[in-house]
Amino acid sequence: MQIHKIIYKFCCAIIVTGLLVTGCSNYKSATVTSSMKLPDTFTVSTDTNTIAAIPISSFFSDTYLVSLIDTAMAANPDILSALQKVEVANANLKYAGGALLPSVNLNLNAGIEKYGDYTMNGVGNYDTNLSSNINSDQKIPTNPTPDYFVGFKSSWEVDLWGKLHSRKKAAFSRFLASQNGYKMVMTSLTSQIATAYYQLLALDYELKVIRKNIILQRNALEIVKVQKLGGRATELAVQQFLAQLKRTQGLESVTLQQIVETENQLKFLTGKFSQPVRRDTSINTLVLPKVLTAGVPSQLLLNRPDIKEAELELQAMNADIKAARAAFFPSLTLSPYVGFNSFASSLLFNTGSFVYGVVGGVTAPIFNRRQIKSDYARTIAEGKQALYAYQKTILSSFQEVMNGMKGVENYQNYYEQKQQEVQALTNAVDVANDLYLVGRANYLEVITAQRSVLDAELELANTRKNIFINAINLYRSVGGGWR
Fold this sequence. Notes:
Elements: H1 2-25, H2 56-59, H3 63-75, H4 77-98, E1 103-113, H5 120-129, E2 145-158, H6 163-229, H7 235-269, H8 300-303, H9 305-326, E3 331-342, E4 354-363, H10 369-437, H11 443-477
Antiparallel strand pairs: 1-2, 2-3, 3-4
Helix pairs in contact: 3-6, 4-6, 6-7, 6-9, 6-11, 7-11, 9-10, 10-11
């Protein structure tokens, strides 16, 4: 009979072990990795230096712009929100690390229970009270029986398969990712403020050009009115010059509104309501950074915060996959306790009521395996999503650098040609006015010359702005703007 019991227990152990091993072997460890390799150089540059390491205060020569950026770093809502995300990730890391340590709780328990006459406790308590081996304090109260406990109870899951360590590793990677996310918000904010600032300077210059042309066109209108009185011009000419003036005055109103909107955008980015935006530099006299080099593509992996963030998120997902796989294996939990336990409150802190013990338990998933399988499959799919996001970020950063480098070069060439065009058109306006006064040019030629020089000067300011915006984009795209 004893042999049969041993054989039965042995067979049960084999069946359970077989189920566990079979279930775990079907889900081998999976790791999601990227095989993407960046080119050795950018096709538009072979310079190995990079502007990413240049501090903001050194990259931008305008002290008013640097002051705006400093203000935004302390008050912008996105910056403050990103900083709290770092705090959240730090709290999650501490929480994941705490799971590796045993929990200890102070327990103050009191209960009461009525045992039936035909239960083991009921019969056992009744029989114990009849024993001559116990004293009056040891007699068990019946009908009902109290139970008091004061002491410490602990629970500790032994990390046999590295599940808890993998979760801590994932939390640590996400903490580092949140720090890089914070840096990415900083570089993005730097880019937004600088872009808006140069747009504002360009609008200031456009307003100056428009008002200069309003004066010129108003003088031309007065001249043609005088000529009409003398019979040298018609009412048609007067109306054409008047229409030209009104068009330019309308541009003035539109530009003033754009200035207001751009100033308010800068106030919003810096977290202010009504602080004036200080600036006194013409965009045409601002100096571009002396060195605009992108370095080599591999430096993007070190300098771009969004690439580092995506890479760390990929590492976190790989740790999540390991933790999800470990859920298929049995888990061991130890539950020690120490304290005082008694069925009488008056005897609770008696030395004879002191108790201690430890309970160990092994649990293995059997009927809830479908949930574990689903969680494992979901984690792998999310890991692949993180991989594709990482690769997309790398591709996007490479294209941004290329666009920024060529943009600075091409707009610089365009600006030089536009300067010569403005000079030629300005000379044409003077010539047209002189010829008109002596009757060798008609009023339409004067109007056309005035409109052409106005449009060219406005385009000149816009082109200069585009040079600076592309320089900003290059600075951001290589990973600058957060140091």
